[in-house]
Amino acid sequence: MMPEVGLQSYLLLGALLFVCGAVCMAMKRNAIGVLMGVELVLNGANVNFVAFARFNSTFEIEGQIFALFVIVMAAAEAAIALAIVLNFYNNHMTVDVDTAEELKG
Amino acid sequence: MESPGLLYVAATFLPLASFLLLLLGGGLRAAAKPVRDTPLGGSIFRGLGGDAPIKTGAYIATGAIGLAFVLSLIGFILFKQDHPHEAVEHTAPHQEAVEHAAGADVVQDWRLSPLSLADPSRWSVSVDWASLNMGSRPATTLSLGYHIDSLTTVMFLMVSFIATLIHVFSIGYMGDELQPTVEDHQVHTVDGHLRRRGRFGRFFLFLSLFCFSMLNLILADNLFQVFLSWELVGICSYLLVGFYYERRSASNAAIKAFVTNRVGDAGFIIGLLILWTYVGTLNFEDLFRKIRLPENDIANVATASSLRHRIVRAAVVPGEAPSRDGQKLQISAGGDQVVLFPEYSRHSEEVRKALDTGIVDAKFAPRTGQLGSMPYWVLVVAGLGIFLGCVGKSAQFPLHVWLPDAMEGPTPVSALIHAATMVAAGVYLVGRCFPLFTPEARLVIAYTGGITLFMAATIAIVQTDIKKVLAYSTVSQLGYMMLALGVGGWIAGLFHLITHAFFKALLFLGSGSVIYGCHHEQDMTKMGGLYPKMKVTAITMLVGMLTIAGIPLFSGWYSKDAILAQALGFVQEYPKHILLFLLPLLTAGITAFYMFRLWLLTFAGKPRDEHVYEHAHESPRTMTVPLIILAVFSVAVAWGWPLYDAEASVLNSTIEQSEPLSAKIEFATVHAFAHGSHALAGNLALGLVLVALIFASLIYHSRVLDPEEAKQQFPGIHRFLWNKWYVDELYSAIIVRPALTVAHWCRKFDTRVIDGTVDATARGVVQLSRWDGRFDLGIIDGLVNLTARVVFAVGGRLRTVQTGYLRSYILFLVLAAIGIFAVLSYFVAFVRAG
Amino acid sequence: MDVQTALFWILAGLTGLSAIAVVVTQNIVRSAAWLLFTLGGVAGIYFLLGADFVGATQLIVYVGGILVLVVFGVMLTAQGPFVTMKTSAAEWAISLVVGLLLFSVITLAAVNAPWPQDAHHSEDMESAETSQNSVKLGAAFLGIKEITPKKDLTGFPMGKTPPERKQVAYLLPFEIVSVHLLVVLIGAAYLARAKRRRGMPT
Amino acid sequence: MPYISSFWLYFDVLWPYVLAVLSALVLITFMLLSAIFFVWLERKVSARIQDRLGPTRVGGKYGWLQTLADGLKLLVKEDIIPTNADPMLFRIGPYIALAGAFLAFIALPFGNGVVARNLNIAIFFMLAVMSTEIFGIILGGYASGSKWALFGGMREAAQIVSYEVPRAISVIVPVIVAGSMNLTEIGKQQTGPFWNWIVFHDPFTFCAFWVFFTCATASCKRAPFDLAEAESELVAGFHTEYSGFRWLIFFMAEYGSMFAVSGIASILFLGGWHLGLLPPGWDMERLFGTVFGNFINVVVFILKGWFLVFVMMWVRWTLPRLRIDQVMITCLRYLLPMSCFLLVGVSVWQLVAAELTWLSLVNYLLAFGSLFLFGFMVFKAAATTAVSPTQLMPGAWPIAGSAGPHVTHKA
Fold first, then answer.
1. On chain C, which terminus has fewer CB atoms closer than 10 Å, C or N?
2. pTM for this structure?
3. Is the Cβ pair A105, B811 closer than 8 Å?
């Protein structure tokens, strides 16, 4: 049988999302792929927030509210990131983040 | 007009503005010359004359000085309105003095000193230029200011007027300098005669600077400003004497003039410093108020003392040892101290107390209202020092040697600077500082003047260079003025200064016209018979000659008679100084002789040099018109009504307005004698002059007496005079040669010992630094470079970490997070366990 | 196995696999599609956890907004028909290793940490009448004190009494966040506006 | 977990699954049926508006079964995937769109309690899931590998993302009036006569209805906002490359969402499942018992929804298509400020109306005014003799040889 579903299960799901996001950021050469990675990371964190809200009555409200805030912030982040990507594209004629190496040592 | 004195300031600064304008123009032209191929540079360069000099600068300078003349004329009229002349009753001298002393309780303020004015704020302003402080108390202040009195106005008129005329004259005379290339026949180079660019503009540049300096000198209300201008006119003289600096004689003359003046200026500085140290001020009015007992006290009541306007001498009270801050003095005629009165003496009760008791409480550092003292001999030295400066500037014996040499400069310069104005500055300063001079100093002045006038006149007899004759004549006339001042003839001396300026300018310009007409031939022996060729010049020269000779109704007659009368009066008072009358009297005759000789040699008789004669021509209008104007003024400048009365003229009375009361009081009896014996002195001189004129015409016109015969008859005297009394040789022997010898030895010492030491030190240091350099390069730089190389290498390795790839940074971020987790968990476990 | 558990595994599997697919997929638009499933799955997880408001917000913001924006970005910056950017095998390997490392660290922490739990109102989701989640959320925004349960704070050092909790109204922070979002949107619009490029061939 | 061997012992465990599957089946069947009906309706409406007859043969006089025939044709059509297309995205695009439309039905109450899941935030949930529909369209447009499809998808994305904002804000207006986001709750509040409907509650809700309906039309990409499939410009927009079954699914999604937004409109504004002719406090359950009453409720609700869909079709075939910039301007420059103004206005109204009771007169004024207008329009329409397709249209060109246009006026 399946193991019991508890807080840890959700945390592990969040961790999986988080790690996927981090790896996505690290691996995608496309700037928009990096942006997707960021969204994944935020979702992973949000899953944790909501899970805590569910499993710890102290955080019943706060967990959800923080998740909401994170979502709104993610929207802001996505908008600004997209603007940056467009500018980046204007300057480099590509969205390959590996071309943004002007500041390398 | 609120402060008409500003007119004079404006008149002073006009030539300065002209100078700056010309300087700017010349500088711009010089700056534009390298870039004259560019449009802008080319337009500037060509606009400023291009390769040839242009006349614009001359017009600017002439306009400036002309405007200055107009301004000073307006100022003069305003001044006369402010200070109407009061008729002076010529009564018995003693009576007048006594009346003056006792009668007039309330005296007009402006008679307090030569510089006192009816309305000071209208005519004088002074601003602090620099201030020296000793602790909290202002020690002394250098100020710049103007102070207009009647002497200033007259001097201003004279200087600006003559300068204007000479500017106009120069436009014609310096015409040669307008050419792009001037060939100087007197300078020989390997390529023949020197060829250079014309310096028309530069000439007027210097003239403008000179005019500014001279006017500023007259304008000044303090000795410091006078000194500044003094040096400025000195440098202008230097520049203009050396105008043809390629000529060796010209540059030598310039240097000689400059160095000789340095001797005089050394004395001037000594005088200045003494006054600064002891009196603490250089302002004329303050100086006189401190040295002489003032006329009025605080309530404007005349001081009831016979010591008014006199130098009050005092002796240390016996038994009273000087305290820390002062000493007790007893007023006595032969005392070795001079009492210094408070600057604002009218506010002082101390003065009245001192005069009442005869005991002066003199402080070493007097504060406001307190009295001070200085040693009498120091005051004598100060006066002599200032006089030495005047000796240098006015070419008095023994510093007269530079003036004849200075004739190397262009003739207008000689006329303006070395005859009419600058050399008169010495006389002017003696007159200005008259209250500073003690009787001993005045006697030195008188004798200096006496010796100078006689010596110069005798030398002038044998000179053949037309300008040299005039130069010695100038020295002689300056001697007259000095003598007049020395014997108390303040008015006579300055009166002669003014008249002399006109006729000497006339004579110099006339000689300039002759030289110009004869193509720069200055030797009189090559002239002769020029009268038909240049009538205007000849007639105006004749007028000038008659004026200087002292023919009645010519202006020179009035002033020379006044001097002779003053000298006679002085001799009547002090019979042992009879020489002070005999020398000028005799010289009056000599003057007439050599001047007539000059005129006759030049214009009368037959031409002695056909070449010169044939090419001789009358000068252009720009030169003759000033001559005519100057001739008119030479005749008429001293006229008054009645015509025979010298003291009736406006000029005389204007000068008289600023005569220091000290001169009037101290020489009251002399004046009285002089007034009485005026006719006697004048007649004696006139007789001598007539004899001299006849003598001269016999020799040089009728050829009754041959000058060559006379020369052979008195070879010793002729050689003595020809060599100018051997003064130059004397200087050469006692000053120049020893100085050269000493300099030679000094040079040897310098090159051998000092340079050797320095060289050895240098060599040692070089050696040392070579070792130091090796150490530096090898060890210190090596260490630094090693550090840098190590850092560079490490950095080179480390820079690869900064890949610039966003993604690798994220990887590092994640790795760092993992590391932090690991470390944190370790510590948390540790804490839990502990 | 009750519905909750089954749904969790279904949703978690969908979410996790989609997330991995996001990482693995080379085509960026396909990644976006997988991301859609991931986000939808996460929204489902929220619904499962009783946070229906957060779930709906997740859907409307992420799927309706951000994801569309991302696809916009792809379309505005794509030069070829289907953009792919290859990642080298070494990078794959390194990223994988690091990711696994991170995952193991987080897993260890999540599993080993003694989380204080009090699973509550697990049956509240059964009907709208009993699930007062959104009501509580609204009350919390308005700062109504009684809505927040008073319990001990977690993560507080042991042996120390936590301070008295103060009731916070989240309305002001929410307003600030929304104004922030507005500002960011205006800024983003400004940043991304069409600029005339100099020196570039048209 | 205890070991239970009997099937019935599993009943408790399985019942939620069964219920869920049943609900889904019912809903999807309804969706399918209504889609079939809408296709037929659309053809008939467009035909009548264009002075045609439309389908007349299949399934009887009115062509009832025309859509079924069409569907059969589509099902047996070859499923073409273009070479340039991204096959995976091309395939899943329609399903995402359909899922978005279908999910909205979960929270949509057809009657009092007749709802698959009674959510507290039902309306919010519906808006959220309906916003996912466009993603399928974008994916389909992008994956087709055709520029027309890509343009269509892009336009769709831009348009819908923009129109979502005023739509959501105008939804909040009745939510504020009702004080709940639970659609069942909102429906219950509008029991009784029609002046209890929220649309007549105050001027702001009245305006909000029109704003919402416009936005709903636009977000269903219906004409005059059908830029995504503008056939005169983009061939067929995002579904240019689609054929057969996938194309059918796109259309099911579109008609499904049309009904969904119509349902939302009717619940939020038009009284939901209430007929509006019962006296205050009365509803169908009270009259006819729970089951039958609810049946009537469902019928009323569906009819209301269909009527609104009919209005959309009416509009579609009446008004010309806008340009894309006009579409965006309509949203951003007019609808968005209007909706914001309405939101503020209704908030103020709620505060003020609590104090000033006479303001409720506005309610009756709006209700009866609208009723009068509606009745007048119906009367006008009924009183005007229908112009049959066989007759000449007024103002048309006269046919050569005929006696000229003869228009039958009413007697």
1. C
2. 0.53
3. no
